[in-house]
């Protein structure tokens, strides 16, 4: 088994949003603001570029004991010594990933329905990315948004940790958490912010307030 993972504030990177800033600097700032887990998401990099970047990101996460998750690519995750890999419904299936790696590797799976959630849990997923909770311009090739109600249904169905992703920012993060999510995963709320440390801090405050706001649960 791997160490206990804190999924509460999950940063998913996107270099299209970094402008002239360095990805490493944004990640470091976001950690100072309270990010607990980082996914390197590179949809256009060459394999070599992806690997080199993964090694560099891993170096900065290590002293903070923050797990690195690699999007889509189990080969890159294994090669750079990342703690985990995240796969979606059109990526390598979780049960096939599990044939290759043991329980030490964190495997996350994107789901948007109760059926997908149950299948991923049975296949050995460590956590689920409920995706997308809200529509988002960051990723448009998605199934219909689950909304808070869909997220809640999935929460009531599976026993593994779940994070909400898609259109989440400091004004709605508390609701997502109060619906039972173990955390929120964000791209633009941190990556597109001119102040990633402050953005992460605001998200952290919202997450913490959501944990103490069970009243949302009965409303959704
Ligand atoms: C935490 C988290 N949840 C969902 C996703 C989406 O994964 P996927 O559906 O495979 O889409 P891409 O990110 O690969 O475009 C995610 N990356 N992370
Ligand atoms: C990677 C991903 N998977 C589902 S929605 C999404 C993008 C989320 O981006 P944002 O946090 O900017 O809405
Ligand atoms: Mg994917």
From TrEMBL:
EC number in record: 2.5.1.3
GO MF term list: magnesium ion binding; thiamine-phosphate diphosphorylase activity
Gene Ontology terms: biological process: thiamine biosynthetic process; thiamine diphosphate biosynthetic process
InterPro entries recorded: Aldolase_TIM, ThiamineP_synth_sf, ThiamineP_synth_TenI, TMP_synthase
Known cofactor(s): Mg(2+)
Cofactor descriptive note: Binds 1 Mg(2+) ion per subunit.
Residue numbers binding Mg(2+): 72, 91
Reaction(s) this enzyme catalyzes, per UniProt: 2-[(2R,5Z)-2-carboxy-4-methylthiazol-5(2H)-ylidene]ethyl phosphate + 4-amino-2-methyl-5-(diphosphooxymethyl)pyrimidine + 2 H(+) = thiamine phosphate + CO2 + diphosphate; 2-(2-carboxy-4-methylthiazol-5-yl)ethyl phosphate + 4-amino-2-methyl-5-(diphosphooxymethyl)pyrimidine + 2 H(+) = thiamine phosphate + CO2 + diphosphate; 4-methyl-5-(2-phosphooxyethyl)-thiazole + 4-amino-2-methyl-5-(diphosphooxymethyl)pyrimidine + H(+) = thiamine phosphate + diphosphate
Every Thiamine phosphate synthase/TenI domain range: 9-190
Record's GO cellular component terms: cytoplasm
UniProt keyword terms in alphabetical order: Magnesium, Metal-binding, Thiamine biosynthesis, Transferase
Pfam families referenced in this protein's UniProt entry, alphabetically: TMP-TENI (PF02581)
Record pathway: Cofactor biosynthesis; thiamine diphosphate biosynthesis; thiamine phosphate from 4-amino-2-methyl-5-diphosphomethylpyrimidine and 4-methyl-5-(2-phosphoethyl)-thiazole: step 1/1
Function: Condenses 4-methyl-5-(beta-hydroxyethyl)thiazole monophosphate (THZ-P) and 2-methyl-4-amino-5-hydroxymethyl pyrimidine pyrophosphate (HMP-PP) to form thiamine monophosphate (TMP).
NCBIfam families xrefs: thiE (TIGR00693)
Protein name, as recorded: Thiamine-phosphate synthase
Organism in which the protein naturally occurs: Desulforhabdus amnigena
Encoding gene per record: thiE
């Amino acid at each position: 088994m791997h160490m206990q993972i804190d999924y509460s504030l999950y940063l998913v990177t996107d270099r299209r949003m970094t402008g002239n800033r360095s990805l490493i600097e944004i990640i470091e700032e976001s950690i100072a603001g309270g990010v607990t887990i980082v996914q390197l998401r590179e949809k256009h990099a060459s394999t070599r570029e992806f690997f080199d970047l993964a090694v560099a990101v891993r170096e900065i996460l290590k002293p903070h004991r923050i797990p690195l998750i690699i999007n889509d690519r189990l080969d890159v995750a294994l090669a750079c010594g990342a703690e985990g890999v995240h796969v979606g419904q059109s990526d390598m299936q979780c049960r096939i990933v599990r044939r290759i790696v043991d329980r030490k590797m964190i495997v996350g799976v994107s789901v948007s329905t109760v059926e997908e959630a149950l299948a991923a849990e049975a296949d050995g997923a460590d956590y689920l990315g409920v995706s997308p909770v809200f529509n988002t311009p960051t990723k448009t090739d998605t199934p219909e948004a689950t909304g808070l109600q869909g997220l809640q249904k999935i929460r009531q169905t599976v026993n593994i940790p779940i994070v909400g992703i898609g259109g989440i920012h400091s004004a709605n993060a508390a609701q997502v958490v109060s619906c039972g999510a173990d955390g929120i995963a964000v791209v633009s709320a941190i990556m597109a912010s001119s102040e990633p440390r402050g953005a992460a801090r605001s998200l952290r405050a919202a997450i913490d307030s959501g944990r103490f706001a069970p009243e949302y649960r009965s409303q959704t």
